Amino acid sequence: MIDEVRVGIRIQPSQPHIGISVQTGGGCHHDVYDGPVDVTPKAWDAQTLETAGKLVQQDITVQKVPRADVSNMAGGVTVYIASQT
After folding, report:
1. In the chain, domain spans
2. pLDDT tens readout for residues 33-76
3. CA distance 78 to 13
4. Are 2 and 27 in contact (CB under 8 A)?
5. pLDDT score for 74
6. Any idea what the Cα angle at residue 85 is, between residues 74 and 38, rounded to 5°?
7. Residues ≥6 apart with Cβ < 8 Å to 79
8. Beta pairing class for 61-62 and 38-39
9. The three-state (H, E, C) secondary structure of the chain, written as one string
10. Does pTM top 0.70 for this prediction?
11. Which residue has the higher pLDDT, 14 or 56?
């Protein structure tokens, strides 16, 4: 919760722009997310990155879904998607 906001506006006739600054004070606090930032989807398990209400300081990367093509005994190919072979 922010309990104080200050806004300052500065207009200088000699310059063609307006300077605006905003400051917040007190009470504004978020925990920092310190969990994984690089994840790979799993075939059988849902994954939740506990980011709700937290400040995330890095991009979170979700890797491509793992895939493996394996020859089978029938002479064909078995495709494994998002699972261990």
Report:
1. 4-81
2. 999 999 988 878 888 999 998 888 889 999 888 899 999 999 99
3. 74
4. yes
5. 95
6. 145
7. 67, 68, 69, 70
8. parallel
9. CCCEEEEEEEECCCCCCEEEEEEEECCCCCEECCCCCEECCCCCCCCCCCCCCEECCCCCEECCCCEEEEECCCCCEEEEECCCC
10. no
11. 56
